[in-house]
Amino acid sequence: MAKKIIKLSFLIILVPLAVILGVVVFKDRSYAWVSLCVALFSLVPLFLTFERKDTNTTKLVILAVMIALSVAGRFLFSFIPHFKPVTAMVVITGIYMGYEYGFICGAFTALISNFIFGQGPWTPFQMFAWGLIGLLAGLLAKILQKNIIILLIFGALAGVLFSFLMDVWTTFWYDGTLNFSRFIANIVTAIPVTITYAVSNVVFLFVLIKPIGKKLERIKIKYGL
């Protein structure tokens, strides 16, 4: 229990703290260092699992494959604005591999794919947003696995959460602080994008959860993960 608290502290306290400090203190000038800090903090919970019997190279390879598929999916659907399978892949990773792996999948998908789409002060926010969605999926895994309707609702809400967190970055980018009126205006103007996020998550989760989920389950059983 104590180790779980330490893991969650890194992911839901230190990571967002690093992201906010990067904006407030460094004024977006050191986003590369902030992204590096977020990446390192994301890996700490994984390092703490190395003493467990179910943490081995096979599981790390699966994680790498899930990240690669997520990055590839973002690239392949780049011609459709905001309609990407990234969140679905992150959610599936969190459900079948655990919240630590879900967070890493989300954070590293943002970091790696932005070498294609462009790194910037938005990268740490994307890392945290997708990572948080993977974490929540891992924590709610038992519920999400039992009911496809609840899973799809979660996917839609994950789209809203991602848009909400990126609106936080947009507000900081405009004003250097969390101006509430600007934040509300950003949320309102981003409604079409938020809806697209939500719909894409529902579509991709509905299509991918069974084929990828079954494969991950078979691998877990085969290798005793």
What are the key terms here?
ECF transporter S component, single chain, 10 helices, transmembrane helix, Arp2/3 complex 21 kDa subunit ARPC3, 225 residues, mainly alpha, ECF_substrate-spec-like, membrane, transmembrane
The overall pLDDT, averaged over residues, is 89
Q: Quick one: biggest sheet? A: none
Share of residues in strands: under 5%
Tally of domains: 1
SSE-based structural type: mainly alpha
Low-confidence stretches: none
InterPro entries: ECF_substrate-spec-like (IPR009825)
Protein name: ECF transporter S component
Transmembrane segments: 6-26, 31-48, 60-77, 98-117, 123-141, 148-172, 184-209
Keywords: Membrane, Transmembrane, Transmembrane helix
Describe the structure.
The protein has one domain: Orthogonal Bundle (Arp2/3 complex 21 kDa subunit ARPC3). The protein contains ten helices and no strands. The protein is mainly alpha-helical and 225 residues long. The chain has helices spanning 2-24, 31-47, 57-76, 86-97, 99-117, 123-139, 141-146, 148-175, 180-189, 191-223. It starts with a helix and ends with a helix. The mean pLDDT is 89. This is ECF transporter S component.
